[in-house]
Write a structure and sequence with these properties.
The structure holds 2 protein chains of 2 kinds.
Chain A lengths: L1 H53 L2 H7 L13 H23 L4 H44 L5 H24 L5 H24 L1 H11 L12 H4 L6
Chain B lengths: L15 E6 L6 H14 L5 E9 L2 E5 L31 H11 L3 E6 L9 H10 L5 E9 L4 H15 L1 E2 L8 E4 H8 L3 H4 L7 H10 L4 E8 L10 H18 L1 H4 L6 E2 L2 E2 L4 E2 L8 H14 L1 H4 L5 H12 L9 H17 L4 H6 L2 H15 L4 H17 L1 H9 L7
Parallel strand pairs in B: 1-2, 1-4, 5-8, 5-11, 6-9, 8-10
Antiparallel strand pairs in B: 2-3, 4-7, 5-7
The chains are: A mainly alpha, B alpha/beta.
């Protein structure tokens, strides 16, 4: 009885040790790849930070209206990009490490995740550009609306911002293949509705404003001999 | 101020080259009239009149006979009216005129607008005589305007240019100009034509170059303002276009204007004051509405540009009754300087920055109109003078902010 138990125990131990010995190279390879990924991530973070500093990315994004001034203690766009690069490299390193295990299930999972990474990166870039562009769009619409004397200027600015954000997220989801056809159809309904609402609003309430704006943009030529009309006579010329 | 010696001698014919710039152009009888006017006033000089036309992305000069019929106007071509002022370099005929003038060794070159000038004044003679007979290198035109007209010039361009360069040019962005051969040659050699073609050749560029250099300048009253045919431009568009050019030149000539203190009068040819007739319709209520709307909605944008004390002053001013609304000269000068600094350090996208100044500018117009509507002419002049003095006094503020823009960190 004791001998049988001892044999079973030893056989089990042998199997465990064999298994562990079989996985050891894979684990070591994974560890090695993870270390390389960590090193690469640290180096890349430094490089990205330096490049961003060299091209004054934060200042330029602020000038172009893509980012506002950074509050004290909060990360700026350069830091965010550096963090994104770091975590992306670490994630890719982890997935590559997983595939080094040679375990069938983990390899398949890692391979599928690795295939997904480029789509994910593109989606992240689209969202980042969309979020940045939404700020510029909001400010531009807000200033333009105030200068036109529209009292709902802030609402218009916010509307423009959210339209850009929604569009960016819609494209990103489409890129990731999430939601199937629901996302493009929803976007089409949303933007179609917005355009229809704007067309109705302009047609019903702001046609004079649009006419004045178009007249300013595409002036009707007058000959030099043509006398100025009364309206022109009392007009304020700024310069 | 020492004058530089004349480097180039004009040709023996003492030719005058006049370039007519404008979308409408001038018909044959108009050209003949100009030639007649020139021959009568300057009989010893041969006059050549050329028309400016856009061709293949640049402005070229051609004889009136060679000019093809004027095509249908586009938004781009409508900018080619010099009397509007604030013409970007790439739409200006100045470069082509300078090349033509130097090539012909003309005694004087003039850029004039294709617009109806004051028939009661010998405007072309007044523009060219200081160069041909007075030894001046640059003549800046000044026009009779209605008092409330050109508030951008009265409220920003004139006081700012005067405070920066120390010369009291009343209408710096008149659009028209007359230049000597020496100055034309010097300007033509300027590297800005290659380095910054968008701005080189604009009227703001020309005025800043002349004022920053050591040139003999004068201004000439040319009669009533030749109204541009397509001058129907809103406050925001005008601000962005004209002030952008002025701020750009401010950036270019930093070392020059930081050394200038005070201002001095510029020799003036002819005399003039303000034009009578119907005053422009200025609805103070509407201007104040836009100002208050801006103060409410654009506060986050302005807070990137203006210091807290100014923002507080604006809030208090906005809360006042319409008839009691006032924007103090010092505060206004500081606001303009703050925007100039923000333009320089690129606090935000530059077009957005200038456009966001519009409600403040309209508020200033409302304040100025209310203050000056009952004033006689000398009192009105004194009021403009007080505004200019405020810009000169506050120049120290501009210099300190320009040198240490982070001193005020929003």
């Amino acid at each position: 009885m004791w001998e049988q138990t001892q044999r079973i125990f030893l056989e089990s131990l042998e199997r465990v040790l064999h298994g562990a010995a079989r996985q050891l190279p894979g684990a070591l390879a994974m560890l090695f790849l993870l270390l390389i990924a960590v090193a690469a991530a640290l180096v890349l973070r430094g490089v990205v930070r330096r490049v961003c500093e060299r091209v004054s990315l934060d200042r330029r994004l602020r000038e172009w209206g893509f980012a506002g001034p950074v509050a004290e203690g909060r990360p700026g766009p350069s830091q965010l990009i550096a963090r994104l690069v770091t975590w992306t490299v670490l994630a890719v390193g982890f997935l590559v490490g997983l595939s080094a295990f040679e375990a069938a299930s983990t390899s398949a999972l890692a391979a599928r995740l690795l295939d997904f990474v480029p789509h994910l990166l593109v989606a992240v870039v689209i969202v980042a550009v969309g979020l940045a562009g939404s700020r510029a769009a909001e400010r531009s619409v807000l200033i333009g609306a105030v200068n036109m004397g529209l009292h709902s200027a802030r609402l218009l600015g916010l509307g423009a911002r959210w339209l850009v954000v929604i569009l960016a997220f819609g494209i990103a989801l489409d890129q990731l293949g999430v939601g199937g056809r629901v996302v493009p159809v929803s976007l089409a309904i949303l933007f179609g509705g917005v355009v229809l609402a704007l067309a109705l609003a302009v047609g019903l309430g702001a046609k004079d404003l649009v006419a004045r704006s178009l007249e300013r943009r595409f002036p009707v030529p007058k000959s030099l001999d043509e006398p100025d009309d009364e309206d022109e006579e009392g007009k304020l010329h700024h310069l | 101020m020492a004058l530089e010696a004349t480097a180039i001698e004009p040709g023996v014919a003492g030719e005058i080259v006049v370039a007519i710039d404008g979308a409408g152009g001038v018909d044959d009888s108009g050209v003949e009239q100009l030639e007649l006017q020139l021959n009568r006033r300057f009989p010893k000089n041969r006059a050549t009149i050329l028309m400016a036309r856009p061709r293949a992305g640049e402005v070229v000069l051609a004889s009136p006979g060679e000019v093809e019929p004027v095509p249908a106007p586009t938004s781009e071509r409508s900018a080619l009216v010099t009397t509007e002022g604030g013409i970007p370099g790439q739409y200006s005929a100045l470069g082509a005129l300078l090349r033509e003038g130097v090539r012909r060794r003309a005694a004087a070159v003039a850029l004039v607008a294709a617009a109806q000038h004051d028939a009661s004044a010998d405007w072309l003679g007044l523009l060219l005589a200081p160069v041909l007979e007075g030894g001046f290198e640059y003549v800046c035109p000044t026009y009779l305007r209605r008092r409330a007209d050109a508030p951008l010039n009265t409220g920003i361009i004139y006081p700012l240019t005067r405070a920066l360069y120390g010369q009291r040019l009343r209408q710096p962005l008149g659009g028209e100009a007359a230049l000597s051969l020496t100055l034309a040659a010097r300007l033509l050699d300027d590297p800005d034509w290659r380095r910054d073609p968008v701005h080189a050749g604009s009227d703001a560029w020309l005025v800043a170059k002349v004022l920053a250099g050591r040139h003999r300048i004068c201004q000439a009253w040319l009669g009533a303002w030749p109204r541009a045919s397509h001058g129907d431009e809103g406050a925001s568009e005008t601000l962005v276009r004209a002030l952008g050019l002025v701020f750009r030149e401010m950036e270019r000539h930093t070392r020059c204007w930081q050394r200038v203190e005070g201002s001095q009068p510029v020799p003036t040819v002819g005399s003039g004051s303000w034009l009578g007739g119907e005053a422009p319709r200025v609805s103070v209520e509407r201007l104040l509405d836009t100002f208050r709307l801006g103060a409410r909605e654009l506060a986050p944008v302005w807070s990137l540009v203006l210091p807290p004390a100014t923002l507080l002053a604006l809030r208090q001013a906005g809360a006042a009754r319409a008839d009691a609304f006032r924007l103090a000269d010092d505060a206004w000068a500081r606001i303009v300087y703050d925007f100039a600094v923000a333009y320089f350090v690129k606090t935000m996208e530059r077009r957005q920055l200038l456009a966001s100044l519009t409600p403040l500018y309209l508020g200033w117009i409302a304040s100025f109109v209310q203050e000056t509507q009952g004033l006689e002419e000398p009192a009105f002049e004194a009021r403009v003078e007080a505004l200019c003095a405020a810009f000169e006094t506050q120049k120290r503020y501009l210099i300190s902010r320009w040198r240490w823009p982070d001193g005020f960190n929003p």
